[in-house]
Amino acid sequence: MNTLSMGTFKPFQTLHPLSLLAQLTSREASGCLQVSNGTDSWLLYLEQGKLLYASNSIDPFGRLDRHLRRFSIQAPSLVSAVRVQLRLLFETSAEEQPLAGRDYEAICWLVEQQHLRPEQAAALIEGLASEVLESFLLLQNGSSELIEQPVFPDLPKLCHLDLRTLAEDCQNHLQRRQSAKPLASTPIERYNLVQRNGNYTKPEDEKPATDNPQPAPQDTPRTTGAIQTAAKVGQPALPTHKTNYTIACIDDSPTVLQAINAFLDDKSFSIVLISDPVKALMQIIRSKPDLILLDVTMPSLDGYELCSLLRKHPSFRNTPIIMVTGNTGFIDRAKAKLVGASGYLTKPFTQSDLIKMVFKHLV
């Protein structure tokens, strides 16, 4: 059980982030500093006043994936398939493990698997810490506590960062950026801007029209009569023991997603539309679909690779996965079978084709 020194807890109050960090450095504190503003939380892992790692609850694995994509120039093995595998192995919801440091554990795994050298991992951690600290320094109110316990006892310590220097650099960077970008005039506005990506982003009304195309529906569950749809295409009704089936559709084409959404317009189906398999991976895990429709050719990730990775996850070992593709060759079908696909749906397909495939694997 975590032990808490009674003098380290501070209830919801006005925060002075720089002063708080300076105190921890001067005391050479060790443990996990937890700070919450009531909506989001920040975690700073310390050892004798040095920063081992910093994270927050604002999409930690999305932040890690973004930094890894940038780092892939220096570490060519950090391909999309590796990043997806990492999220499958380590990403959990905040409710399941709020203080587990799973993103740090994921970085250690990358080092162990030789996708990153230790010095590269240290540089990655520093970049992540800078982004987290910038958002932390914008806090004005919240609660804080220091849990004084060994940090990452079973994992290697990849770096020990000078917290005071790093915080001061982040503060200077914030001040320069705010003076150059006067669009965020209040602390709350600045905090909201940093929350978006960890970096300044232009407000929507400042972006040119070409920068805001109509996106594909993403991570959108919709529940709308499988019995009625089945009657239209001459298929038997679904068993009565289950009244709703969740179907995840992964495709980078908005046209294909909209077609599937329309073809399965039925109250017995909940459709989850996903246009980016890397960013939306946690949505797949959370929704626990009864069937997955997976495009083969996507710019960010090969569908065969994603199918193979999903099969390695315990939640998807027996889930029907249907490959959706315009390739009809024998080799393509053999590859689909090799990675554990349950079926093969050829583009272009009709509503009848899709419903037959769905009923084949759900009945």
Can you offer a commentary on this structure?
A hairpin with a 2-residue loop joins strand 3 (41-47) and strand 4. The strands form 2 sheets. A 6-stranded antiparallel beta sheet has the order 1-5-2-3-4-6. The protein has a 6-stranded mixed beta sheet with strand order 7-9-8-10-11-12, sandwiched between helices. With 363 residues, it is α/β, with parallel strands linked by helices. 41% of the residues lie in helices and 18% in strands. The protein has 2 domains: 6-197, no CATH class; 220-362, Rossmann fold (3-Layer(aba) Sandwich), CATH 3.40.50.2300.
Which descriptors would you attach to this protein?
13 helices; Rossmann fold; alpha/beta
